[in-house]
Each structure stands twice: as C-alpha cells, then as structure tokens.
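Contributing new records

If you add data, match the layout below exactly. Sequence lines come first and carry their own label; structure lines follow with theirs. Keep one chain per record. Anything else will be rejected by the validation script.
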Amino acid sequence: MDLEFQRVLLKVQESLTGDEVQDLVFLCSDLLSLKDLCTVSSAGQLFSLLEKRNQLSCEDPSLLLELLRIMKQNSLIRNLTSDDYKQTNGTTYSQQISPYRQLLYERSESICEQDLQNIKFLLLKTLSRKKLEKDTPSALTLLSPDQCQNLDSNSVIENKSLNLSVTSQNTEIQQYEMKGDRRGFGLIINNYDFRACTLGNREGTDIDKERLEVVFKWLGFEVLVEQDCNRHQILQVLRNLAARDHTPADCVVCCVLSHGRVEGICGVDGEIVTFRELIETLSPNECPSLCKKPKLFFIQACRGNDNQPAAFPQTCSEDEDMLFSDAAVPRDSIPEMADYLLAMSTVPHYVSYREKGRGTWFIQSLCHSLQLLVPRGIDLLSILTQVNSDVSKKTDKSGLRKQMPQPEFTLTKRVVFPPPKSHRPLP
C-alpha cells in the first residue's frame, strides 16, 4: 500500500463536504454495487471500496482525477498534481464515469427547490413517503443509493431521472408544439463533387447523407435531398422550401454538408453562401407559415482555403481512416430573429473532420445521439450538449487532431421531438 497515495486520499477526504461525498457516491453508482454504496458515509469509505476492486490505486489515480474534474474541484486537482502526488502529472483521463451520469450530475446543479419538489411529487409511487419527507438538499441526494435501497440504480437514475429533470423544467421553459399533421420537411444539401473549382471532392459525405435520411425519416420528417448544388442552386433550393406551405408542420430542418470558409458555405462552384443568407431564406418575411416555429440548421462545413493550425498536421495515409478537415463559422452567423438553431460542426476558425469510410465526426455523433436520446424525452439542446461531449473526446491515431462543435440559437422554447412510434433499431 502506497502511504503517499493514502495521504493524498486523506487530503481529498478532508476537503470535501458531506454533500460532495454524496455527489461522489452518485457518480460511482455504476462502478460499485448498490449494497456497498448504501454503507458509504465518507469519501474514505468510498475510496477503500474502489481500491479493493482495483478501480483506484497509486499506479492508476485517473478515476480520482476524473471525479474531481467532473465536480469542478480544479484547485484541489492542481494541489494534488503539483504538490502532493507527482505521479499524477501527465495522467490521461480514462472515461470511467458514464456520460449519462455526468449529464445527470450537471443537470442537478441547476435544479432549484421548486424543481426538487416536483421530482418528489413524481416519485410518490416509487419511493416511500418516509424517504420523500426527508430533508433532501438535492435531486442527487434524493436518488442516491442510500435513499433507494430497494431500487435498481440503473433503472431509477438513468432511465427515470433524465425524464424527471426534463419534466421538472417544463414549469419554467415551454416547449414548441409538436402536434401537427406532420413533423415537417427535412432538407439535406449534400455537396460532394467540386471538380468545377479548386476544392477537392468530399469523400465520405454520402455516408452522412444516408444516415441523416434514415434518422430524420424515423423522427417523422419528409426528407428532401439535393445533390451537388452551386451557390445559386443552394439559395434557390431554400427559396423553394420557403415557398411551401408549412402550416400543418411543427418545424423545419436543413442539413448542409459542404466545404466552407469562415464567412459561409461553399457551393460546388466554389462560390460562398454566407450563413446569414442561408438562414434568412426562411425568415418570417420570406416564409410566414414558419413564423414562431423552430427552424433547425445543422452545418457540416469543410475548411475551404483556411490554413490548418500547426496542431493539425496534413499528412495522413490514404486509407479509410484518413481524415479530411471541415471548417469553422463566424460568431455573428445567426441573425437577430427568433426561433433559430444553427448547430455547427466546429468553433470559429478551426477545422472539423471527415473520414472517408465513416463520415464526419459531428454528423455521425448527432445521428447517434438523436436515436439514443429522443425516445427518452431529452430536448434538442441537451442532445447537442451530448454531441459536444462525444466529439470533443474523438481524435485521430496521432492524438493531435481535436474538434469542438458549437450550437448557436435564438430558440424561445425547448425543442422536444415526440418519441417515434416505431422503436425498431435503426440500421
């Protein structure tokens, strides 16, 4: 047993409050049995359980650092890595805490007292009255293992809590209505062939296009696909969409897969359509039947003529794992109009990536997250937060290439797609 490491654990234990210990227990609920967790009353007991199961040790303290990072104990992390335990320097975080449990923890931070009372009300038939009447300072305390000894932690926390946190927020933030005769049109502009200009063909984009078609049809959209559009054709396709009657529809979706530069999207002729031009085609003046309805844009734009930073080297082998760069968009890209979402594959001035045999990181993560989280009743912005998390963890074989998507929006309500009637798994 490493005494120095035990001293580190003792310092962490002394630095955490009782509520923070309960947060640790909640985050570790997938790693230890419910029976063991019900006996935990201190951080030291939790660390001992993790050490006994070889999930925490002086040779691999990454779980400790991951837990402190999720809890935003940054000063404590700096203390440990700089003063107390040199061996943690340079440790790479291995993701042992599930994304869903992290998401629930982050949501709990913003749950107010009224929300907590709403959650208690919704759990009347799940937990005993005695437990519900206890003074519970947070939603995580309410659903922690010591409060749910007779419940299965996965079914209660991961399946129900997501829906409960969404339901509780309905008291403050309204949802767009999704009860129309049809969900709406889903337009996909897929630009692959750039032989008419100096830009290269976008290998792998058809994989994105096909996945988007399947997922948005599954969500109830009438999908329209336009292939290889120049600047004029992109604008005309959107004008044609604006000319349709959207009165019976709930919303509209537009996905653009193309090369791009900082100022906008490239047509296959190399000419730019600015982001403002792109989305103003569906403004209330141009399309009154979409007024006060969500207009959702998903942009996968390649890098165009921008130079890559030194951290993103160009040289790759010519195989299916080869990465191609897809670029950034400006911060002022969304106009001052309500009910827009512009979900972009990367932050301004940086590249995003496309694999010839697998499609782009952003679109594939978006489709996967929609398929996984829509049936759970999760709103679109929360889904995009999960996409941000997924994409930010991806890298190439060199470990040097990274990407961070960025949603911008002027939505005035929450976008929650009704769960599809068919729950058959998507291909």
